[in-house]
Amino acid sequence: MKETMNESDVTSQTTTHKQRDSPLQSDNLKSASQTARKIGISKPTLCRLMQRGRIGFYRVGTRVLFSEEHIATFLASCERKPQGEKSGQEGARRNAK
Questions:
Q1: Which of 69, 76, 77, 74 is nearest to 28 (CA)?
Q2: Contact between residue 24 and residue 60 where contact means Cβ atoms under 8 Å apart
């Protein structure tokens, strides 16, 4: 017996869903030149970071684009804590002497 699909079955199978905004449709994308300028490095240095996988990017045809998230993630990976912030007690001991 072959089952036939009625309109309600088709509708339930093709449920609509919110399409997430594509990062490529965002106005927040920056070119390589803009990104290098924003983070204070040269364009060749940015290219080396890309080759080493240190910063994420989108390649669209021949264009290379960076999202704010790519830039923020890279900058967070560069953060270094001062030596004294490792343990709050160390500073307290030094100050008590």
A1: 69
A2: yes
The tokens describing 77, both together, are 């990976």
Hey, what domains does the chain have and what are their CATH numbers?
25-78 (1.10.1660)
- Do residues 52 and 46 make contact, with C-beta atoms less than 8 angstroms apart? no
Token pair for 33: 């030149």
3-state secondary structure (DSSP) of residue 51:
helix
Closest CA to 84 of 74, 94, 76, 75: 94
Cβ within 8 Å of residue 38, ≥6 positions away: 30, 71
Q: What is the pLDDT of residues 23-75, one digit of tens each?
A: 555 568 999 999 999 999 999 999 999 999 999 999 999 999 999 999 999 99
